[in-house]
């Protein structure tokens, strides 16, 4: 079935980097953009950016410019989101999401990856 | 960036009640709005796309309406499984943005 499966929870120290993966299955990975959304504990949803898996083109929210990098490995249908210079405020669940059926909605989501930043 | 303001931020209601959640955009977004339901520890789930189209498999008690700047999500008769947090999201302008969420609790 169509799904996005993310890597497991991470614990990082302030200043470090984290790389979260998102493996697509059940559809043609290179045909649909992958978006990343994060959610701090008890808070709302925050869009971080997008990547076109075919071209590798990316677009990042201004807040994360210079700290986030979105890449992909098309041979294994996997997208990656790397966030650097981590601080405690980056502690959150990170989701990948895509729009397969609709232009104006994310209709599939990964299960989420908890990233904890703590000294 | 376009700001989406949801109201109320939280809401207490009973099973069987009719509930309406509002999402107001800081500028016109045509009908490029989606609604999601999120339960604790789970990823958001798409309910409504293009402001008023029901996602496949979503119960018909959910409906969406609006265009321009004002949108509503209505649940016609609350069921126990509907107690969750609801978010709107706009796609008309880059970057896509979310409302702050509405937590629907059992009265």
Structure description:
The complex is a heterodimer of chains A (119) and B (107). By secondary structure, chain A is mainly beta. In chain A, 0% of the residues lie in helices and 47% in strands. In chain A, β4 and β5 (46-51) form a beta hairpin. Chain A is globular and about 40 Å long. Chain B starts with a strand and ends with a strand. Helices cover 0% and strands 50% of the residues of chain B. In chain B, strands 2, 4, 5, 6, 9, 10 and 11 form a 7-stranded mixed β-sheet that branches. Chain B is globular and about 35 Å long. The model of chain B has no long low-confidence stretch (mean pLDDT 97). Chain B is mostly beta strands. In chain B, 36% of the residues are buried. Chain B has no helices and 11 strands. The A-B interface holds A 35, 44-47, 59, 61-62, 95, 97, 102-107, 109-112 and B 31-34, 36, 38, 43-46, 48-50, 53, 55, 87, 89, 91-92, 94-101.
Summarize the structure.
The complex is a heterodimer of chains A (119) and B (107). By secondary structure, chain A is mainly beta.
Which descriptors apply to this entry?
heterodimer, A: 119 residues, mainly beta, 7-stranded mixed beta sheet, 4-stranded antiparallel beta sheet, 11 strands, B: 107 residues, 0% helix, 50% strand
Topology diagram in text:
The complex is a heterodimer of chains A (119) and B (107).
Chain A: E1 3-6, E2 10-12, E3 18-25, E4 34-39, E5 46-51, E6 58-60, E7 68-73, E8 78-83, E9 92-98, E10 108-109, E11 113-117
Parallel strand pairs in A: 2-11
Antiparallel strand pairs in A: 1-3, 3-8, 4-5, 4-9, 5-6, 7-8, 9-10, 9-11
Chain B: E1 4-7, E2 10-13, E3 19-25, E4 33-38, E5 45-49, E6 53-54, E7 62-67, E8 70-75, E9 85-90, E10 97-98, E11 102-106
Parallel strand pairs in B: 2-11
Antiparallel strand pairs in B: 1-3, 3-8, 4-5, 4-9, 5-6, 7-8, 9-10, 9-11
